[in-house]
Design goal:
It is a single chain. By secondary structure, the chain is α+β, with helices and mostly antiparallel strands. The chain has one domain. The chain has helices at 5-9, 30-35, 46-60, 144-161; strands at residues 22-23, 44-45, 65-72, 83-84, 86-93, 98-105, 116-120, 123-124, 167-172, 181-186, 193-198, 204-205. Strands 1, 3, 5, 6, 7, 8, 9, 10, 11 and 12 form a ten-stranded antiparallel β-sheet that branches. A two-stranded antiparallel sheet has the order 2-4. The radius of gyration is 17 Å and the shape is globular. The two termini are 17 Å apart.
Length: 208
């Protein structure tokens, strides 16, 4: 069993921002609606959602750097096989000294969740720290479904003994690793099983 240290280490980067509401993108009107891509009919991978959020983040501040990506459970949907109905990404702007959480959902659960991209309020960001480092988008090669398959092969003995446990996904980077990693967790942090998967290569990794 691996200790789920990355989840705690990335706390700065993946703040749920419960004190901050999320608002739909500011673009309105028929032309803006026409530019929006269609919403997928079912749960999607992290990388699919990431690029939708990245476009909105880049429009907010062209210098944005990704800090974290994680799945979000929604009523009526279940994260499975590396796909989720909602994903949240944290982006930081070195120029603005701010970070912002973006969400992408396939579900319509108004008033809190609407299909497509939702944008959180800006928050002050003092910059990278060893426990929560930005990563390059070019290093995000392994999608969440592929990371799940790699992690499942590692976790198979545990999952056979503990069937039916929920699985969650967090993508992030810290000084313990050489680049971004997927943190795949079955069950709860204290009594579950976690695996780190290199987001560049798909290899199983351990911290330094």
């Amino acid at each position: 069993m691996h200790r789920p240290t990355l989840k705690a280490a990335l706390a700065i980067a993946i703040l749920v921002l419960t004190s901050c509401g999320v608002t739909p993108p500011s673009e309105t009107g028929k032309k803006a609606e026409a530019r929006k891509p269609p919403i997928p009919p079912g749960p999607i991978t992290g990388r699919t959602a990431f690029w939708e959020m990245y476009r909105s983040a880049h429009a907010w501040s062209p210098d944005v750097v990704p800090l974290a990506l994680e799945d979000k459970e929604l009523p009526g949907y279940k994260t499975a096989d590396g796909k989720a109905a909602m994903w949240k990404a944290t982006f930081g702007s070195p120029k603005l000294h701010q970070f912002r959480v973006f969400s992408y959902s396939i579900a319509d659960l108004k008033p809190d969740v609407v299909p497509g991209v939702m944008i959180g309020n800006t928050q002050r960001w003092s910059g990278p720290v060893n426990e929560a480092l930005p990563f390059e988008t070019s290093d995000f090669n392994i999608d969440s479904d592929a990371a799940y398959q790699k992690a499942l092969a590692q976790a198979a003995p545990w999952t056979r003994k503990n069937p039916g446990k929920d699985v969650s996904f967090t993508l992030g980077n810290s000084s313990r690793f050489n680049g971004p990693v997927w943190y795949v967790l079955w069950g709860e942090k204290k009594a579950g099983y976690s695996v780190y998967v290199d987001a560049r290569t798909g290899a199983i990794v351990k911290g330094k």
